[in-house]
Amino acid sequence: AGMNGTAIENFVCVIFNVSFMNCTWHVGRTATEDTQYFLYWRSSKKEDFIECQNYTKDNCGRHTGCRFQNVTIENKVAYFLVNGSRSGQNIQSYEERIMLISDYFIAEKLTPPLNITVNCTADSHSCSISWQPPRTSHVKKRSCFKYEIVIENK
Asked: What's the whole-model pTM score?
């Protein structure tokens, strides 16, 4: 239902700092300035949808993104719904079931590694560097991470 071209486009979400999620989208091709969108999400089919409480807006005041706090996606699947209206008429809704492992619609920006320690010895002219993996919302295996160390002489 709703007029063609009014549904959102280019929907993307990014998880950061383990439990925060930012979602963004572009307004539909035929969306007018009075079109308004509302985002709902849930992490399983058994849960109720949660509406965004913190929208970002474009110059016309239309919702074009959302910031969520305390997000947990334990089964690596999330369900999203964006609906809305314009001049009292319904617009086309957008529904998406997104797999975390696809990294296509949801990505995660990782925190830096934790507890970095450097021990250098003058006798052997060598250093030992150790750290713990970054905190993440869904990666549990340490072997999933690759690290790069850049050493600068100052």
From this structure: 0.71
Could you please state the CATH topology (level 3) that the domain comprising 9-109 is classified under.
Immunoglobulin-like (2.60.40)
What's the pLDDT score for residue 103? 46
Give, in degrees to the nearest 5, the angle at Cα 36 between 33 and 42. Answer: 155
What would the pLDDT profile of 7-32 be if each residue is shown by its tens digit? 999 998 888 877 788 999 999 999 89
Q: How far apart are CA 55 and CA 24, in angstroms?
A: 10
Measured CA to CA in angstroms, residue 14 lies from 65, 67, 83, 118, 130 at distances of 11, 10, 20, 32, 28
The Cβ-side half-sphere exposure at 110, using a 13 Å CA radius, reads 15
Domain extents in the chain: 9-109, 114-144
